[in-house]
Amino acid sequence: MTRIAAALALSTALVTLAGPLAAQSQGDWTVGVGVGYVNPKSNNGTLAGGAATVDDNTQGIFTVEYFIRDNLGIELLAATPFKHDVSISGIGYAGTVKHLPPTLSLNYHFPTNSAWKPYLGIGVNYTTFFEESSPLGTLKLDDSFGVAVNAGLDYQISDRGALRLNARWINIETDATLNGAAIGTAEIDPLVIGVQYVHRF
Questions:
Q1: Is 66 in contact with 131 (CB distance < 8 Å)?
Q2: From CA 82, how far away is CA 28, in angstroms rounded?
């Protein structure tokens, strides 16, 4: 939660400094392409009686957003598959998993009369895990639903193009089984840092 508070505080400070308003129009579409760095929290729960650690990963990310009203957009986040190694204290390397984290968010973009345009969003995430492998046996992670919050800042580089920096916290918790037996819950809850080029249509 400290990560969420820091992201929201940064975006609020940027809004305060932003200046007078200038609307983003209802009916606009934006498409974003870039990279996302997934950094799971430091304590990832207990698996097979030991403390679990999930490492980080960077992959391509894509966003599509439709403005249902001036300054208010519905955004879909997609990505290429993220891959993570899982370690367990007392065991060491315990396996590798891949996941896809599509996230649907409602974003409010604070309009300004400058090139800097901050925004805040909240939404829901669905994470699906696949291609799990482990030297210990057959590893399986359940799919996950959770809340997602995000804060971002666009820097306008042309009439229709912008560079975007975004911080997104996602609640991801998944029950794990090994050889069909429950071994605990992995609490991933990552901070996702994204850098994108965003184009408005």
A1: no
A2: 30
